Amino acid sequence: MKKLLSVLLLVSMTASLLAACGSSKSSDSGQSGTGNEGGSASKKVVAWAWDPSFNGAALKIAEELYAKENPGFELEVVDMAKTDLEQKLNTNLASGVKEGLPDIILVNDPNIQKYVTAYPGTFADFTDKVDYSQFSPYKVDALTIDGKVYGVPFDIGVTGMFYRSDYLEQAGFKAEDLENITWDEYIEIGKVVKEKTGKYMSTINPNDEALTSILLQSGGSWYITPDNKGNFVDNPVMTETLRVYKAIADSGIAKPVTGWSEFVGSFNAGDVATVVSGVWQISSIMDAKDQSGKWRVAPIPRLNVEGAVNASNEGGSSWFVLEGSANKDLAIDFLAKTIGGSSEFYERFLKENGGVGSYIPSFSSEAYSQTPEFFGGQAIYTDFTKWSTEVPGISLGMYTQEAKDALKNELPNILNGSDLTQSLANIQKLFEQQVQ
Amino acid sequence: MGSKWNKSNLMGWQFVLLPSALILLFSFYPMIQSLLLSFQSGKGNVYHYVGLSNYARLFSDPMFKQAVLNTLLYLIVQVPIMLMLGLVIAYFLNMPGLKFKGFYRTAIFLPCVTSLVSYAVLFKSIFAVDGILNRMLMSIHIIHEPIAWLMDPVWAKVAIIAAITWRWTGYNMIFYLAAMQNIDPSVYEAASIDGASKTRQFFSITVPMLKPIILFTAIISTNGTLQLFDEVVNITNGGPGNSTMTISQYIYNLSFMYTPNFGYAATVSYAIVIMVAVLAFLQLKVGGEKK
User: Fold this and answer.
1) What's the confidence (pLDDT) of residue A13?
2) Chain A residues within an 8 Å CB radius of B64
3) pLDDT band at A51 (very low <50, low <70, confident <90, very high)
4) ipTM score here?
5) Nearest CA among A89, A83, A87, A95 for reference residue A47
6) Which helix (H) or strand (E) holds A282?
7) Record's Pfam families (chain B) (predicted)?
8) Residue B243: its chain A contacts at CB < 8 A?
9) How far B121 CA lies from chain A's nearest CA (Å)?
């Protein structure tokens, strides 16, 4: 009797285990969103995005527009944290598992080359599907690898210098004084501001590469060369960038912050007079309702090297379609007709979610010429879009993160006054070791 | 021999068969797979066998060296402090006359049940430039300008050590407390009659009797510290520079932040395995029972 019972138990356990394996497989393919449940005529695509109020919301707008022409079209947006999304994509692709992946995926611009090169044949080619001449060139450059264009450009991170007009007035500066200045002039202004108002000019975070990235791109350079070599030694833009960075740190005009929330907190609390950041920062700045009317935007300061401009970029993302997706053609058509070529989409995206794209035809629309009260009636979007056409196009390469980390490793030494040439050589060496 | 394989024995085997199969499948198979992976290199899913060159790269990799040095520093500084503290606290909590014992024990154990991420975020805000620590120090006039704790390579390490000590001391204390309660009170009574002071009793009775437990906590703490990840990622994210980065974070970076090289990441993982094994072996040699 006992034996019979135990055998039964064992059998049922094994069976349930096998059943679990089997069912997990079927649920996997369900998650993959190939939409096989509804038969091959299904018009459902699945997309992964990381911010339901921003890029997720954008997809919803696009879905609405597309469904007008294509009744029955359905889009499922799976929302997860950005790092989770990247981790999931990496592990899935590296293990060679095609199931469980979506049709459409959002990719951060610095990751584009890395993904396309490390996982060849995984992402769909968009070269003839979208009219790329309608987009800001630097955005298309980031998507172009070996003459092929992957994905649809989405939001941009064109930078500006947000400033508190009341603090600067108090220190004796007018709006014209901030137009098209150099970083050295910026530091001088900052010293006056600090003296007269007691406020910091900016924040600094040696653990965050946002500022160095902005400076480099404004000079048309990047941490790595287009052929993925370290770009630290004998690069005048890099040298100037680090000189400016150290000058800002040394001058005492920058409030040290250690993380994102402290950074945002510093301007929401009114501790700093300027914020040099991407256009997407507008929503965080506008969170401090009591500061309405006090903010303005000017072009970012310029590096003291040839070819440097008062415009740059920070961040931004693009939409990719997976080559192996069962609904590849539908997903491509959906993206190309909405985010890849609809002025209406960009107007609504700006109005409803404050997102700025790089689709040039939408720039002349009414949405882009609005004059928010918060920024004292300045037509900020018109300004940002104008600057976005001036941003130098660069190749982000596939080792941006490695290069940033190599730089980060040496940054404390640079800030402590070590010889810059020697430090740059160290960074280059470290970078080469990291990417072997 | 034949009698050993009676019915009940057979039945026992049937029960362990399934768990063993699961352990083999989900524990040993991945271990062997990752060992194989550590001999391969490449980007993403383009891999090829490179023999021992991943291991050779390990020895010339300054980032790896930095991560190992940081981790070993945490280990050498933090683990002894934490174990001593746990031992002393346990000793006091075990004193017969102590009032509100239950409250103190709960209070000291409580950090261990908080989430790793949430307490790390808490410590981050304590050590922030306008955090509570700076405000306190300024209000009692020890410092005049706020200190950017997390941006200084040394202070950032101190912050991390403080955080992990806070989190894990109570955990070790519970082991000591449990062990101390197993010591027969008559031993202390006899020592008191012989005229041994409380301090003398602590070092001559409590500590020697707790030796196996101390060894055990030392090994699990070593193991835990070598795998330290959450605190560092959430408090400093490895910075400033890479001065607080741990080996586990480096593995994470290699796999998910950088252009993924899972082969090399597996090699670094095996470096941790080897270090844990060697340290545990040394600790057993030094502290274990001599037979």
Assistant:
1) 53
2) none
3) confident
4) 0.77
5) A89
6) helix A282-285
7) BPD_transp_1
8) 412
9) 11
